[in-house]
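Standup notes
- DV: blocked on the single-chain target, sequence here:
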Amino acid sequence: MRTHDYDLDFRDRARRVRAWGIGLLSAATVLWVWCAVLLMTPYEADTDAGDQYPAECESRLFTDRATANDGLRRGDWCQHERDWPEALAVLGLSLPVSLAGAIMFTSGSVSCRMSAHCEAMRHLDQPATSS
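- DV (later): unblocked, structure below
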């Protein structure tokens, strides 16, 4: 019966690792959504501290008039409101988080499945008891 207890403990640990993987993949999804919001949504930039009419800026990714990329040399305040390094930093931070989450989820899932398979094979190998 000791091997059965060890097997149950092993499966419990594998499920916890899989749950951590799901949590990390969820965190990576939040970072991807944040990056998409930074790149794809229009925004406003204040030209002064108490500006009542902020400058309208197009999204970083889908810009026609280059309002997001030209900068202050043309009197445009949009470039400094949302910088490319911020969006790329969020995307770069999501990569190791998603990689670790994928590895942990896969490892936990495979460990749990292999444990169940081994237990099923042990039960099949046991001789049938006759009455």
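- Follow-up: The longest helix spans residues 84-125.
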